[in-house]
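Below is how a single chain appears once it has passed through the pipeline. First comes the sequence as given, then the structure the pipeline wrote out for it. We keep one example in the README because the format questions we get most often are answered faster by looking than by reading.
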Amino acid sequence: MNLSNLNILSIDYGERYVGLALKKSSANIGFPLKIIDQKLNNLHDELDNKIKENEINLIVVGYPLGLNKQMNRMTAVVDEFIDSLTFNIPIEKIDERFTSNIVSKRNTERNDDLSALEILESFLKKNE
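Resulting structure:
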């Protein structure tokens, strides 16, 4: 898959906070974009705005499998979230088992956008 000409939105979905990261077609790297607090914002409206604003061609969602790649409660929650998306854009899932641990060691504040960036970077490396 040639990702260089795509605008990619990466999502680290959480039940309250959702982190977003972005890779523009004009760049080979991604950057943290936003943290959405679902108690204060309508997630689907926020996503719709970011998708239109950045002309997104592909969405990558972190998929929280257990350590032995088994499904768990959060996997089901993320599946439900993905099923709720009505954008006519391809969606890829990527294993996010270790991204939160990597990011939390770097930063003590809300870091969902950095987790989304780590998910994006993992996806880009996997598809080089």
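The mean pLDDT is 89.

See the next section for the split statistics.
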